[in-house]
Amino acid sequence: MVQTYQSPLRVYKHPFELVMLAYERRFPTTPLIPLLVGCEVLSDAYSEDSAERITERRFKLIVEAPYLIKKIISTDFVYFLQRNELDARARTLEIESKNETFSNRVIVLEKCRYFVHPENSDWTCFEQNAELDVRSFFGFESTIEKLAMKQYITNISKGKEILEHYIEVLREEGITYIPPWKPPETKNEVCDELSKLDLKSDGTVEEHSLDKLRRQGSMSPSGTKRHELEFQLEDDYIRRCLGELDPMQESKLIQFKKQIWFLQKGKLPTDSTLLRFLKSKDYNIEKARESLSQSLTWRKCHNVDQILQQYEAPPVVRAYFTGAWHHCDKEMRPLYLFKLGNMDVKGFLKTIGEDGLLKLAMRVCEEGLSLTEEYTRKHDRPITTWSLLIDLEGLNMRHLWRPGVKALLRIIEIVETNYPETLGRVLIIRAPRMFPILWTLVSTFIDETTRSKFLVYAGNDYQSAGGLIDYIEQDYIPDFLGGPCETKLPEGGLIPKSLYMSDADWEAGKHAMVEDTVYHSVSISRNHPVHEVILNIDAPGAVITWDFDVMKQDVVFNVLSIHKTVESIAPVSGLSLIDKAWTEGVDYECVETPILCHDGESIQGSHVTSRDGIYILQWKFCSDSVSTGMDTSSLIGGVAKAQVMYYYEILPSQHYRGSMSSLQSAHSGFSALSMKGGASR
């Protein structure tokens, strides 16, 4: 299996030319890289104007491997070839390195690039990526793969330190500025420029005039195209806003972001959202992508993005719900207090229903995400999770009411799926003897990683050493737990039956967030390769709109107009209404350009009809990816069935009063969870 690495964007707050001089100081060898014991320059060539330089080197490195491996390969050294292409005009350095030793068994390819920061011409950026493919190695392929990646990751973190070291050496030598490359000038041109300079009485040039010449010789920032940086992340930004990640975790995050960026055509969830889903799947990119895609579709179906703006707590919630936000814990995570023991679970189910409880839980989760972002900015440190304190004082058998437990389990399952890695710690206090029964019921629905964050205190144990004081500042311990901090939680208690819904209303409201949706879900496979929605348009000018998400595999989307009279327009599962004998342009026509939609994409569009009659929205199974400028093989993973969740609507021309320019087909974004990838930097 090919192993890949993608670095975050490193930023050196020094000009490109100074960084290049520091880079050259590393050669031929340096004590900072003890494994490098030899360097031979194979070729070194300049362009006629000296703007471009191509250097090829051969490196000799010590093999750092277990004795048995070194015995098998019968060598203490390996050789690598490196090609450097410096473009002083564009201010870029391209580096490509590959192994010479065992090149018929192992392929190592590393590409690095230095370039001017696109937003500050006095800063220099660095990025690198690498691939390792162990094809055959005496039966030790897996061992060599793990050993090589471990060694590579270990050495990565040293790269920036080495360059910063030599920049400091240059500073100690008095070298803090290297003028950018300038094109050769003729004698007359030089004289013309010198005549414009401001000279002092001693014949020296005024500093501002020299700066003018230097600026004229400086090239505008180039190299990486801006769209290529949309999915990149700066290493300092990761540490400051997302937390400490090891090099491989950073690489996985960037690869994941790149994959989602391509699928969504530049629209991205926040970086913290990407990292949460990636962490929840142990940095497995494919599993994280599938989980994120399903969650975003769920959010769209149930309008979760608008819940903070649109949700208004019913009076019964304001009067009886025993939960609220309360300052933060010792790690500056937002803290939520929940007095479950005082909550009338049956009363809430009978008044606001399971759907109402779920919306309330989602509201809390959305508030938690918003607060973590606010606290990250406020405290200038990464805060990506929030803490939950659950007080079980008063918990009894009525809390084990079967419909209530079922509702709780369903809420836990939905929250676990759509809000992974949001809980930093869960403190359960004053747990009664019956708590193990409840825990046995709910723990199987909680992810193992999340379960490890639970701390349970029976009776008054929370007041002892290792209790709340270890996790919450003394000044923030709630008053109902003996602390000095006042809380404004409702007392809870039994909800009057006069507020209950009727049994018919309660039954009708169950599982509304699952069943009450305008979206349709369909599977398309090789055996059933087509799904069609037949639309009957009564008059020209009607507007057909669509919104769909591709959950698995690739599909091709078409909008067709039927010219031929058909006897029956009832769709047949897996078959097209279009007869193979029909001729395009005569019997039917494509009224929109067919779109190849990749796994994970979200598509919106519309079409203004030019005639009445039958129109078809068609999704076709696509077994082979079509080249779109990116490698989609890793995105598909051999899935043999496509899944599409779609919504459509017909707007009669007489009812439509919107701007026609808004009806053009376009890819949709992620709304509240979305932001441009570049904004993260």
UniProtKB/TrEMBL annotation:
Residues 313-489 form the CRAL-TRIO domain. PROSITE patterns: CRAL_TRIO, GOLD, PRELI_MSF1. GO terms for cellular component: cytoplasm. Residues 2-175 form the PRELI/MSF1 domain. SMART domains: SEC14. Residues 515-650 form the GOLD domain. InterPro entries: CRAL-TRIO_dom, CRAL-TRIO_dom_sf, CRAL/TRIO_N_dom_sf, GOLD_dom, GOLD_dom_sf, PRELI/MSF1_dom, SEC14/CRAL-TRIO_domain. This is SEC14-like protein 1.
